[in-house]
Amino acid sequence: MVAIWAAARPTASGSSVPAQAQRPEVVSHAPDSAIAYEWFTYVPRSLRPGERALIWVTGLHGNLVTDRYDSIAIESRDMAERRVALAEERRLAMLVPVIPRPRTNYVYAVALAPRVFLAESEEFVRRPDLRLNAMIDRFAAELRAGGFVVDERVLLDGFSAGAMFAQRYALLHPRRVLAIAAGQCGGALTLPESTLEGATGARLDWPAGVGDFERLAGYAFDRDAYRRIAQFVYIGDQDTSNSTLVRTRELWRTQEQIDLLNRVFGRTDPARIEAQSRYLTRRGYNVTFRAYPGVGHTTTRAMRDDVFAFFDSVRTATAGARH
């Protein structure tokens, strides 16, 4: 699935060789007292001091359910190395966090499941969004120390579990996010609404919506800031067998949540996510949706190209607004 994120990388002579033939200069950041997770960064050579630097948060995944955190770190480093050529090509400062998904005392932390907010959960899985904030702040400080002009908001992309994190992180910290690209999202978006328009008495608690946001997060939801985030939401139109809306254990707190989303927005992931995207657009949120014909639960080169075309358009628009 991650292979399409690799790209040809130019050599000194100008020819291209496969990215995997190079040795990427990915920096590993070990856990410490301030940031309990491992994380990886890469500063592209194509980016020069004095230039505007955008941080690109990527490589988010829930591929491994294991108590071996080092195994998740190995996979995350591989994802970082596969993205080096893209960071160079797109001139983005890359950050890849390593978020646990433990088998014992299971919590779907990368999906920002309700349990990550609860004090009774293990400390290691609580609030990965806040740990990412600390990574971003430290990376930004390092970039500024190196002479770069760092944008205050980041780009995030993710697919499946990674998309759930990207989309929900944007809800939790909208002032930190310039744009997201979220593929499949586990079968449903978390709506920036407490109730559904036209559905009397239908309360949307996390992760269906933000009805109990303040109780969980500890601060009020910033809807105005969230409206300013540019969002590219996508899915393959054959991606119908990987939904999270099948039981309440991992994410959904009640069967009523699942039934409501199925009834209002559709019973397959492609139909539901498209309907949710249209709903948000009608309500003034900045959401672009695309379905990919004939594609199942995977990423494709067309998806990757569209993600970066979207990010490029956002960068161009915001760069113009700064002048």
Short note summarizing the structure:
The protein has helices at 69-82, 84-90, 128-145, 161-172, 213-217, 223-227, 255-265, 269-282, 301-321; strands at 9-10, 16-17, 27-29, 39-42, 52-53, 55-57, 93-97, 149-150, 154-159, 177-183, 230-236, 287-292. It is α/β, with parallel strands linked by helices.
What would you note in describing this structure?
There is one protein chain. Helices cover about 35% and strands about 15% of the residues. The protein is an alpha/beta fold and about 325 residues long. It has 2 domains: about 20-150, no CATH class; about 160-315, Rossmann fold (3-Layer(aba) Sandwich), CATH 3.40.50. The strands form 3 sheets. It has an 8-stranded mixed β-sheet with strand order 3-4-7-6-9-10-11-12, with helices on both faces. Strand 9 (about 155-160), helix 4 (about 160-170) and strand 10 form a beta-alpha-beta unit. Helix 7 (about 255-265) packs across helix 8 (about 270-280). The longest helix is centred in the last third of the chain and has 21 residues, at about 300-320. It is globular and about 55 Å long. It starts with 8 loop residues before the first strand and ends with a helix. About 45% of the residues are buried.
